[in-house]
Amino acid sequence: MSAADAKPQTINLEDLPLPQLHKIKTQLEEEMDSLTTAFSHMKQAQATFRECTNCIDALTPDSQDKTILVPLTSSLYVPGKLSNIDSVVVDIGTGYYVEKPKADAVKYYNSKMEYVQGNAKTIQDTIEQKQASYRGLLEIMQFKITQQQQGTNGGAEKASASK
Question: Is the pTM of this model over 0.90?
Answer without folding.
Answer: no
